[in-house]
Amino acid sequence: MLRIIVASLLLVAVAYAAEQVCEARNGKNIITFSETPERTKFPCKYNALRATKCGKWKVTLSPGNTMEMEKMKRYVIKTMWVGVERISDGMKWEGRSDLKIARKYLNNIKKEPFVKKDGALSTGDVFTFGPRNADNKVTLVEKSGDFNITFGLYEPEGDWHKSSSFKFECFSSTFDPSDYPKQICGNGTKMEVREFKQAMDWTDQRKATLFHNVFTNMDIVQTDSDCLSAARAMTNKCKGDQQFEAARVCWPILGKPHIQRCISQNMDSPISAFRHCVEYVCSGYTDLNACLALSEEIDMCPQVPELSLKVRDNCKPDLFCN
Ligand SMILES: *[C@@H]1O[C@H](CO)[C@@H](O)[C@H](O)[C@H]1NC(C)=O
Ligand SMILES: *[C@@H]1O[C@H](CO)[C@@H](O)[C@H](O)[C@H]1NC(C)=O
């Protein structure tokens, strides 16, 4: 009996013990603070961290994915936005890196791997940088040792997407991560996306849940116009249950390799198709312009469940599904 109690106490402790690391590998495979794997298969920005407390700081980290067109199914992290706020006085530093800035730093063409964009603190007040000899990685090192943020660049040659990564490590004993869905890294509760899904009584795959959470989060400044339009449609046009319906119906366009690759191979843009899909679903399947644009993008591709046949009926009788 006692053993059972001790064992279940241990289980509870394990379920809530937040690891102080959140990272992405292969461009899209997130390992959250609870060590739960998730996938970010969309060429848009997301909040990996949002106002997570680590040591003296609140840290926000927004990677921006892109789709690699040459191999047509890989996601690569192209940009890395970092914001830190000193908890004691609210002073901030905000900046970003991307593949070019980081590569210039590694090649000794640029002095710093992250460019400051805003805030009263100077870069040198907060950070030093990792070494230039690191294999395809740049690191922001918080000066007093509170945390490290590493941005791994993809290698155009060889096993190229494997090195596309980020890693946030908090070394301070003061660590208070924000909850999912405010940040994808979560707060250390296991299976946070599934928990959220179950709390909402949604029965679908949790990928749809993740899409829903990313594209209804207007705190993220989407810079790609299709990502922005998809987020706006999901947030403003969709009413009630339509939001989740749009996520559920449209995510396979980006998340299922055979569909996404087919759209790319036909020289159309999967993120544009996703955007038109969201606009179409959020109009209650009445937006004829969205239907027409989408029909051109998914024509001659594998059937998108719940979508292709509606498009064929509503606006393109000769839509062909492979
Ligand atoms: C943080 O990153 C720097 C640069 O790569 C490294 O030298 C240092 O050991 C890291 N800190 C910890 C505590 O791992
Ligand atoms: C962690 O987040 C979950 C939602 O994902 C929430 O239900 C839970 O209360 C949070 N736990 C703590 C300790 O803040």
Description of the structure:
This protein has 322 residues and is α+β, with helices and mostly antiparallel strands. The chain has two domains: 19-176, Protein Transport Mog1p, Chain A; 202-314, no CATH class. 35% of the residues lie in helices and 24% in strands. It has eleven helices and 13 strands. The chain has helices at 2-16, 99-106, 123-126, 192-199, 206-215, 225-237, 242-255, 257-265, 270-282, 288-298, 308-314, and strands spanning 21-25, 29-31, 37-39, 49-54, 57-68, 74-86, 92-98, 115-118, 127-129, 137-142, 147-152, 165-170, 175-176. α4 packs across α5, α5 (206-215) packs across α7 and α7 (242-255) runs antiparallel to α9. Bound molecules: 2-acetamido-2-deoxy-beta-D-glucopyranose (2 copies).
Short recap of the structure:
This protein is an alpha+beta fold. The protein folds into two domains: 158 residues, Protein Transport Mog1p, Chain A (3-Layer(aba) Sandwich); 113 residues, no CATH class.
Key terms for this structure?
alpha+beta, Protein Transport Mog1p, Chain A, 35% helix, binds 2-acetamido-2-deoxy-beta-D-glucopyranose, globular, 2 domains, 322 residues
Helices and strands in order:
Elements: H1 2-16, E1 21-25, E2 29-31, E3 37-39, E4 49-54, E5 57-68, E6 74-86, E7 92-98, H2 99-106, E8 115-118, H3 123-126, E9 127-129, E10 137-142, E11 147-152, E12 165-170, E13 175-176, H4 192-199, H5 206-215, H6 225-237, H7 242-255, H8 257-265, H9 270-282, H10 288-298, H11 308-314
Antiparallel strand pairs: 1-2, 1-12, 2-3, 4-5, 4-13, 5-6, 6-7, 7-8, 9-10, 10-11, 11-12
Helix pairs in contact: 4-5, 5-7, 6-9, 7-8, 7-9, 9-10, 10-11
The structure holds 2-acetamido-2-deoxy-beta-D-glucopyranose (2 copies).
